[in-house]
Amino acid sequence: MFAGVTNFNTSFNPDFAAQAYRDVWEWDGVAWKPISLDLSPFPVALVYGNAVYDRSRSRIVHFGGSSVTNATYLNSQTFDLLLPPRRCSPADIADDQGNPLPPAPGVNNSGINEGDYNAFFSAPGFFSQAAMGPAAVGMFCDIADDQGTALPPFGTGGGAAANTGVNEGDYNAFFNSLFIPCV
């Protein structure tokens, strides 16, 4: 969901500006949670606009709206979504074709399968990243701390334990979760 207003006041009074929003939220099935995105294409908070998600291009298309000063916008704007990839397990690191997540447009990620295995052992995968040392922190094979505890959102790794890059901890976490089906 993009933008909106609370305590709507049709008179567009001076206090209205503090009540308009230009942020993006997502429903996870339980609660609304904010998504951190670059919203520079949207210079002002708008109400009465329309937004749709273009899944094939992974972007939001927004049309029209009114500003808090009652200016009307009849233009359309788009921005790409750079959301973190949806994963179901620490071992779910790639799409079904073996490309590291997020998947390319039109390519499925149906959970853990040979695509994840192929990506893990690909040329830019585990062994290449393990040779990078600390520079590999945050790369697609960095799924656990050095003790093999999965990093959030799948575990508590990286808290008190060190995460010095891609190493045996990531290797163990990958294979410990590779054969556990996603739910």
Descriptive account of the structure:
The protein is an alpha+beta fold and 183 residues long. The chain has 2 domains: 2-80, no CATH class; 85-183, no CATH class. It contains 3 helices and 6 strands; from the N terminus they run ββββββααα. The chain has a 3-stranded antiparallel β-sheet, with no helix packed on it. Strands 4-5-6 form a 3-stranded antiparallel β-sheet, with no helix packed on it. A hairpin with a 5-residue loop joins strand 5 and strand 6. The protein is elongated, with a radius of gyration of 21 Å. The mean pLDDT is 79.
Helices and strands, with pairings:
Elements lengths: L1 E4 L14 E8 L4 E4 L14 E5 L4 E8 L5 E9 L33 H7 L5 H5 L37 H11 L5
Antiparallel strand pairs: 1-2, 2-3, 4-5, 5-6
Key traits:
6 strands; 3 helices; elongated; alpha+beta
Structural class: alpha+beta
Q: pLDDT average, as an integer?
A: 79
Distance between the termini: 26 Å
Radius of gyration: 21 Å
Count of distinct strands? 6
